C-alpha cells in the first residue's frame, strides 16, 4: 500500500507545481488540474495521500493541497467511510493539531485555516452525539502551547460561522450543534476569557524584554485569535453571558483598548456586544459602560490612537502605512462603539425598565463630541445619526447637559459643514484622512453631500432644543460673511478676474453658511411662537442681505438663497417687498459680462433660475402679502417679455407661474379669467394660427419647421431654427404653468361667492370651474395633435427624413443615460465653463423636454379642469388617436412619461362616474399593448442572459455595444415597473398592516424572521387586507381587460427582475386571481397560472425574499383551487425530486381540511419541502457538488410515533438509515 501511495504523492506534487507555476503552459496546467480533481473523486487512498502531503516537511503549497484532500474526503466520503476509517482520520487530525504544524509565528495562515476546516467538518458531522468530549479535547489542546491555542480558536470561530452565520448544514444538525453550544456557553465563555487573560498577562510581562520578543508576539497572536473568536459568539449568545460577573467581559475589553496590538480586535468585540438588540431588561447592564473607568479608557484610547495616526502621517516612511491605517481603523471602531453606547442609552432612558440619566453623561458627550470635531470627515459623519437620536429623545433632549452640548454642536457644525478635505488637495487636515476613505474627488463630493444633509437634519433638531441660540449662531455667521472680503484663493474662475470657482475659500464658506441658515431659520419658524420670533434681528439681517452687492455668480446665488430664507421676516415690514422684488428681477437677467455672445456658464444659469424659483416660492407661500404689488410685478414681467431673447422659455414660464399664483387671490372668477385670457393671448394666437396648426399636426412640416431635416454645417453656431423651436417650447411651458397653478379658492364659501361653483355632484359636492378652462380647452386639440406628431417622428419614414446632423436625435441623451445606468455625473469645475451645445444636443434637449412637458400638461388637466376636462366629447377616442398612436415605434424612454406622468395621474384624479366612459376604454388598450411589448422585450433579455459568449465573441463586442444593451435592459425594467405601478394604482387598495416592532424581530429566529418579514403582504392578502379599488372592480367587469391583467401579473413572475417579481406576487397576483377563484376557470388557465408561479420560483427562488413570497402564492393557489382542479396535482408531479407519497399525504390534507387540522406554519413548511425541487439555484451553485451531512439521533425526546409515518414531517429522506446508533461508542 505504501508504494502506490508514495508514487501517487509524487505525481500529485508535480501536478501542483505545474498548476502553481506562472510559467506553465495553459494546456499543461489544465491537465494537471484535471488529474488532481479526478484523484479527489476516484482514488481509493485519498486520505493516506492527504496525510502524507500535509506533513510539515513538505512545501507549504503542497501541505495546503494535502489538507484540501483531507477536507474533500470528509465532505464527500464521510458517509461511505467505515467506523474505523473515521476514527483513524479523526485521530490523525488531532495529531496534526498537536504536532503537525510549525511554531505559531512561522506557520502560514492558510495552513492554519485549512487545518481548522478539517476539524470543523468532522465536528459538523459527529458532534455532540458521537464526539461528546470534543470541547474538553479542545481545551486540553490549548495547554500544549500557543500554536495549538490559536488553532483551537480558529476551530471554534469557524464552527460558529458555519452553524450560526452561514448555516451551511441541515436544519436538524444545525439545531443540535447550536443547542449544545448554548448549553455549554457558560463554560465556553469562561474558557475563552481564561485563554485571553493568560495570553494578555504573558504578553504584557514579556513585551518589555527584548530577548523575549518572539514569545511576546506569540502570546499576542493568541490574544488576537481569542478576541476574533469571541466576536463570532458575542453576536448571538444570550445577553446573560455577556453581562455575567458584573459585565466582566466588557471590563476586560475596555482595558484592552489601551493595548496597541490588541485594541482593534477588542473594539470589534465591544462594538458587537453593545450593538445587541433584544429585550430592554437584558440590555440594562450595558449602562455599566457609563462608569468613569470605562469612559476614561475609551477616551484615552481614542486620544492615543489619534496621536499615533497623526504622528505616522507626518513622520513615518511608506513601510508604516499599514500601521497608520490600523490606528485609523481603530478610531472608526471606537467611534462606532460610542455611537452604539449612545443608541443603547436612548433606548433605555425613558423606557419601561426605568434607567436614569447617567450622572456622568457629560463625560460621554465630551468623548463623543471629540469625534464630531475630528479632522476626518468620515468620523464626523459617523456621529450624526446618534446626535439626531439624542436630540430627538423625549427625556434626554430636556436634560441640561444635552441642552448645553446642543449649543456646542451648533457652533462646531459651522466648521463641519464647510466642504473641505478633497483627497486631491492639501488645504485641510481632512485631506490626509480622505485619501484613505475615498477613491476620488467625485466619490468624496457624493459622500459630503449626503453628510451635509445629515448635518442639516441634526441642526434642525438642535434648533428645536435651543432655537434662540441657534438663530444667534446663524446671524453671527451671516454677518461675518457679509463683511468679509471675497477670497478667491488659488482657484479663480475662468470666466472673469476676481470671481470665485466652486473650490475658492469664499465660495465654500458662503455655500456652507447658506445651507446652515436655511436649516436653522426654516426650523425657527416652525418651533418658535410668533411672539417670540426675533423679528427685529431677522429684518436687520434681510436688509443687510438686500444691500449686499456682488457680480460673482456663486456668491450671488447664495445671497438669493439667504434672501428667500429670511423673507418670512419681511411679512412684518411690507415696505421691504419692493426691495426684494427689485433684487430678484435684477438677478433674473444677470450676466457676468453684458452683451456677451458666448453661452452662459452653469453658474450664471443657476443664478437666473434661482431668482425665478425664489419669486415663484414667494408668490406660492405668501400670495396675499404680494397681492398689493401685483400690478407692479405684472408690468415688470411684461417689460421683460418684450425682448424675446432676454429670457429663456423656462424663465418666462416661471414668471408666468408667479403671476398666476397671485391671481388665485383675486377670488373672482371673471377677473381671474380675464387676466388669464390676457396672459395667454400671445400663446393662443400663435398656437391656433393656421401655420402652426399645420406644423403641429403634420410630422413632415414639423421636422421642416424645427430644422431637423436640415444639415448644420457648423455644429457650434446657433442654427436659424432655434427661434421656431423656442416659440413652440414657450407655448407648452406656459400652458403647463397655467394648468399647474391656476385654481379656485380653497374655502368653499369664497369659491361660491367668487363665481367658481357651477353646480353640484350627485353626492352634493360642489362642481368647481377653473378660470383657465376656456383658454386651455381651446388650445388642447392642437396639443393632442402635437403629441400624435411626436409619436410619429419615430416611424421609419420620418426617421429617414432626418438630416445627417440629426440622425441620432432620438437617442437617449448622455445626462439621461448616466442617470439610468447610475454613472456618476461630473460635479467639479463645471460652473466655470460656458455650456456649449452642439446643434444635435440642442435638438435632443428640445424634443425630450417638449415630449415630457406635453404629458405634464395632460396629467394636470384632470385635477385642474375637473368636469370641464372629463366632459369633453369623445375624450377617450381623442386620447387613443393621439397619445396612444404609433406606440410600436416609440422607444422605451419615451413610454415612461406616458405611463407615469399622464396615465397614472389620470387614474388617480378621475371621478368614479367617468370610469366606464373614459378609463376603461383607455386602460384596456394600454394594458394589452404593454403586455405584448414587454413580453417580447423580456424574451430578448432572457435569451441574451442565457447565451454565454465565447472569448472571441466577447472580444468582438465593443464597449459601446455592451453599454447600449445595458441601457436597453435598464429601460425595459423601468417601463415594466411603471406599468406595474399603474396596475397597482388602478386596481389594488392597499391597507397598512400592523408593523412588527424591532425588538420582536430581533428576538425571532433568524431564518423565520427573514421568511415572515417578506411574507407579511401575502399572508394579509389571503385575509382580504388587499382589496380591489372601485376602478379595479370596474375594470374586472370587462373580461378582456381582466384576462390581460391576469396575464401581465403571472407572466411578470418569470421576467428576470427580482423586485418586479416580488412586488407582483405579493400585491397583484392573488388579489386578481381571488376574484374568480370560486368561479369556472378553464383547467388550462389554472394550470398555466400555477406553472407561472413555479417558473418564477425556478428563476427567482434563489433569493430568500422572493422564495418566501412565491411559495406563499403557490400555496394559496393550491389550497384554494386544488379541490376543483385535479390538474394542479399533475403539475406538482412534474417538480423534480418530489416524493409521490409525501405529495399524496399533503393532497389528502388539502382535500380534507376538517379531518387534518394543522397549523399554518406547519402547512407552509410541508408545502415548501414539496416544491423545493422547483427552486432554481444561483449560477455559482448550479455546478457545485452537493455536500450531504446526515442527521444523527435527535438530542430531544420524541413522543409516541404515529401509526402512519408522515413523510412531510421527517427531516430525513426516504430510505435513509441513521449511520450511528445510540449503542455506538464515541468517535
TrEMBL record:
Keywords of this entry: Acetylation, Cytoplasm, Nucleus, Protein transport, RNA-binding, RNA-mediated gene silencing, Transport, tRNA-binding
Family per record: Belongs to the exportin family.
Pfam families: Exportin-5, IBN_N, Xpo1
SUPFAM superfamilies tied to this protein: ARM repeat
Protein name in the entry: Exportin-5
GO biological process, one term: regulatory ncRNA-mediated gene silencing
Residue ranges of every copy of the Importin N-terminal domain listed in the record: 32-99
Function (record text): Mediates the nuclear export of micro-RNA precursors, which form short hairpins. Also mediates the nuclear export of synthetic short hairpin RNAs used for RNA interference. In some circumstances can also mediate the nuclear export of deacylated and aminoacylated tRNAs. Specifically recognizes dsRNAs that lack a 5'-overhang in a sequence-independent manner, have only a short 3'-overhang, and that have a double-stranded length of at least 15 base-pairs. Binding is dependent on Ran-GTP.
InterPro entries: ARM-like, ARM-type_fold, Exportin-1/Importin-b-like, Exportin-5_C, Importin-beta_N, XPO1/5
GO cellular component: cytoplasm; nucleus
Top-level taxon of origin: Eukaryota
Record bears the keyword Phosphoprotein: no
Organism encoding this protein: Coilia grayii (Gray's grenadier anchovy)
Any GO molecular function: nuclear export signal receptor activity
Cell compartment(s), UniProt: Cytoplasm; Nucleus
